[in-house]
Each structure stands twice: as structure tokens, then as C-alpha cells.
Amino acid sequence: MPIVNVNIQPEIINWALSQTSEEKLGDKLMNNITQWLSGTKTPTFNQIEDFSKKANIPLGYFFLQTPPTESLDLLEYRTVDSVQLSRPSRNLIDTIHEMESVQEWMKGYRQDFGFDRLSIVGCMKGIENIYVIADRIRNDLELDDTWYEKGKDARESFNYIRTRLEVCGVVVMMNGVVGRNTHRALDVNEFRAFAMVDDWAPLIFINAADSNGAKLFSMLHEVVHIWLGRNDLFNDRQSRITGVSKLEVICNAVAGELIVPKNIFLNKWDIADMDVFEKITELAKYFRCGEIVIARKAIDCKKIDKDIYNQVVQTAIENYRQMKDNKQNGSGNYYTTMGSRLDRCFIRALCESINMGRTTYTEAYRLTNTSRKTFSEVAQRLGGVEW
Predict the structure, then answer these.
(1) pLDDT digits (tens, 9 = 90+) for 170-208
(2) Which of 42, 297, 358, 361 pairs as cysteine with 353 (C-beta 3.0–4.6 A)?
(3) For 252-304, how does the pLDDT look when each residue is reduced to its tens digit (9 = 90+)?
(4) Number of C-alpha atoms within 13 angstroms, CB side, residue 121?
(5) pTM
(6) 188-to-65, 194, 207 alpha-carbon distances in Å
(7) Which residues pair with residue 196 across a beta bridge?
(8) Whole-number Å distance between alpha carbons of 220 and 375
(9) CA nearest 103: which of 169, 17, 164?
(10) Nearest-10 Cα torsion for 194, 197, 200, 201
């Protein structure tokens, strides 16, 4: 087959470089790129195709005259206005686009079948009293003050709240990679979760690469955003207590109150006779949450100072890194992992739509990033029925 050279605009090549890293491209490709930009060589179609795959950039983008402008409204709602998120990764961009497709499908399904708008979406808009907001969310999710006692740890608490949200109509998706590409891991330093508000199909996406305690807090943080009717891209890796907007202060405080009610916390804190760090660790076990949540509640209640809070945060981040390194040496059940990524109500709706001839299997596989065998197995595990 003859070699086909192609003309690619230098501006496009520079833009593509800004979307990836030299490590992903490799020395050989980087050497070629340097020569393309200097004008000493012209790329071949196969080389550009290789560039496209390694950078996870659609091939067609390379043949544009000017760099594409991808509209990502969600970026306007980021928790922390960071330089990093002014240039989001392809992994984040593609994940947002995937969730937009899921939300669009679920919204269409519910509208076609005559579902009412969800009254929970934006029901607390304009309210700033964290206890009023927390009480409304507890009521809607049918939670009592000690709901955390239903599980033995943060993972079980996460799953319990997720189930309650699904009953209320909130779509909860989770993944630690883009689609099912294990080579495209999502970075918790870039984002922890996001919420996409919609009257029929509000959606929360959780970065599964995070710790169990962090995932629980992130999910409830996004719950507050939905009840307030505000989109959010939660990218606060350092669990800041300053330098965030009033809205984020409210969302953090409500999420903390839902996990650790103030009255119960104060009682447990005051009777615990131990070192402050031991106290935080023990209360995290008691409330089935992360230690940062306890430390945040403690500083809000003026039980600790900022230095202690920052020490707890840094220790938690270091423990997460060690946990992540150890986790890379093991692997879980494939179908359990796939099932954890998907919302139960979404899967059941897909199966019903397939059985009625309204949705093709091909579309279902695309929306769930599964194959025929995987979809069937996961659907059965999540309560969906195929004919």
C-alpha cells in the first residue's frame, strides 16, 4: 500500500499536543512531530492516525483548518476555578459527553412514557439554611438521622444512599476509566464527581478512582446541587475550607450534616476521651465515612483548628495514594465492576425499551459501554429483564 502524506495545519498539531502529554505519545512520535512543526518532514496518514489514537483525539479533528471549540457548559460550574480545568483532559471531556448521552436517552424515555417532572430538582433553590436543606433531603430520601447504622462502612453507606437516589429518580453513574478503556484512567486530581441538573433525568457521575469515604461525600455534595438546581463539577481535591464560593460552602456543609448530624457529633466528640487524631479516626468509623468529613465537621463546630484539619487532609490523601498503589496489584469481579458503573433504573428502562422495540441492542451497548454478553449479565444482576 502506497504511503499517503497529508497536510496538517501547525496550529492543529500544537493544539493536539496541548490535549495530551509527551509520555503518552512516546519518543518516536514526538521526534516526528518536531520535524512536522519545523517543516522538515510531512506526516503520513498512518502517523496522524497513530497520533489520534495515542492522544485520544478524534481523527477528523486533525484535518480541520483551526482547532475545534468543544462546548462544555459544565466547566463553568467547577468547584475550584483551577488552571488545570481551563484545559480539561480528553478523559474528562469524553466522560462528560458519554453522560450527556445517557441523560438525553433517560430524559427522552421518561418524557415518552409520561413521567412527571421530578419535584426534587431545584426544590431548595434560593434556600441558604443548611439545616432546612438537609431536612428536606432527608425527607425526600426517607433517611433518619442515624441512617449510617444500616451499613458497616463507607462503601455500604455509599451504596445505600445511591439506592435511595435511584428511587427518587436521580441517575447515578460511576466509573474510574473512560468507557471500558482501562488505559484511560480518570484522575481524581482533575475531578471527583459532577452533577447535571435536568427536570426529568438529573444525573450524578462519581469518579470511581476515589476512596470510598470521598465517593460518599462527593455523591451527597452533588445531591445538594440537584436539590438547589445548580450544575456542578466537583474538583476540590484538597477539601478546601476557604477559597470556595458561598454555594460550595453550603453544599459542603449540607453534605457533612447529612453524613454526620451536628447534635450526634457533638455528643460523641465530647464524651470521647482520647487524642484528637484518634478521636477523628474513631468517629469516622462510627459514622461510616472518611476522616476528612469528621475533621470538617469538627472545624465547623470549633473543636479543632485549621492546622489540625490540614494535617488530616494530607494524611487522607497520602493514605489514598498508598491504597491506590496496593489496589493496582489486585482485581475484582468483572461483572460486579461493570454493574457498579451503571444506574439500576437506567438499565431497567433500557431493557424495557429494548423489549418494546424502541431501542436497539446496538444503542444499549453504546450507552452502557458493554458487549452483548456483558450487557445481558449486568442487566440480570441489576434487575433488568431481556426477552
Answers:
(1) 999 999 999 888 888 999 888 999 999 999 999 999 999
(2) 358
(3) 999 999 999 999 999 999 887 788 999 999 999 999 999 999 999 999 999 99
(4) 17
(5) 0.85
(6) 34, 12, 7
(7) 203
(8) 28
(9) 169
(10) -10
